Inverse folding.
């Protein structure tokens, strides 16, 4: 065994001396952290806006009978729901990459993250930020198309 | 290199990163024995355990700049070894070799440590009959003498979960070891 132990030291040090094992520079890890943070913020922003969009779409149609409900279902942009769920999953996965996350109960982090996004979406919807964005912002064309096929803008 | 023998792991790592990569050999010498025993408790294969530890030291060296010097190096290297071992265990899940004739040659007086070794060997024999979920925190606590916080850092689970798993492991171990 002691021979094998010596071999470990020798093998590892040989790989280092021969340049087969090279230390990655600090900047590599700094960039990695920055990109993770940007990814996390992006997923939160996208999920929040999409939750707002889902609420907005439901409210636009209002309480209705079966016919209007069917119309709403057929015109509803389901991809936003999928994107919102995907954003949530990516966001939770990114949070789990941070050192502090495993010290907390994972359910608290997951539920907290989902609640924050739903509340964020609700606030955006209540403040009318999404209306502005959909009518004047970059999503105008996309939402215009949806609204033409659907029930129109909020009355 | 001799003047660094008294230095802490973190001090040595800082020197490895900035000026003297040869000091990494000191780190390997400090940890390899403990880590091989730890991995062997996980995968129950001496040769594979040696490979895992060697690979882990290489991986640790490559990623040495990601180590936060304000934290404990031991937890960091155990975490890397844990990941490597678990990956290997998943790969060879069907293989379930038994732990046998596990012995380290040492310059220390064997008689002096006999009693302690006997206890450790008995614990290791019992550990192999306990599910990995419980045996790992237990072996880290009793054999590697890690604190709950360090185990939490190594296994990336909350400290409360560490305490729960160790308590359950003790109960399971008591049942199994008393039967044997």
């Amino acid at each position: 065994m002691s021979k094998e132990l010596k071999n470990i030291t020798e093998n590892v040090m040989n790989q280092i001396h021969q340049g087969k094992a090279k230390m990655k520079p600090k900047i590599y890890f700094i960039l990695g952290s920055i990109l993770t943070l940007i990814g996390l913020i992006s997923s939160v922003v996208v999920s929040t806006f999409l939750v707002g969009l889902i609420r907005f779409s439901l409210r636009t149609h209002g309480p209705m009978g079966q016919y209007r409900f069917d119309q709403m279902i057929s015109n509803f942009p389901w991809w936003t729901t999928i994107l919102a769920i995907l954003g949530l999953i990516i966001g939770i996965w990114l949070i789990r990459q941070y050192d502090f996350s495993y010290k907390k109960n994972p359910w608290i982090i997951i539920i907290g993250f989902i609640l924050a996004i739903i509340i964020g979406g609700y606030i955006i919807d209540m403040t009318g930020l999404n209306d502005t964005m959909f009518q004047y912002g970059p999503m105008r064309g996309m939402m215009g198309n949806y609204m033409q096929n659907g029930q129109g803008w909020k009355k | 290199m001799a003047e660094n023998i008294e230095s802490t792991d973190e001090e040595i790592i800082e020197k490895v990163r900035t000026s003297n990569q040869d000091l990494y050999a000191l780190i390997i010498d400090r940890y390899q024995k403990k880590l091989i025993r730890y991995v062997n408790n996980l995968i129950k294969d001496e040769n594979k355990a040696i490979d895992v530890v060697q690979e882990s030291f290489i991986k640790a060296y490559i990623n040495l700049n990601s180590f936060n010097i304000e934290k404990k190096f031991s937890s960091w290297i155990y975490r890397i070894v844990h990941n490597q071992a678990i990956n290997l265990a998943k790969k060879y899940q069907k293989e379930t070799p038994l732990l046998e004739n596990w012995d380290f040659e040492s310059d220390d007086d064997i008689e002096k440590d006999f009693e302690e070794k006997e206890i450790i060997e008995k614990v290791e024999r019992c550990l192999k009959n306990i599910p990995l979920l419980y045996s790992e925190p237990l072996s880290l606590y009793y054999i590697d003498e890690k604190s709950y916080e360090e185990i939490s850092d190594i296994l990336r689970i909350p400290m409360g979960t560490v305490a729960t798993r160790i308590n359950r492991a003790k109960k399971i171990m008591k049942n199994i070891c008393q039967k044997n």
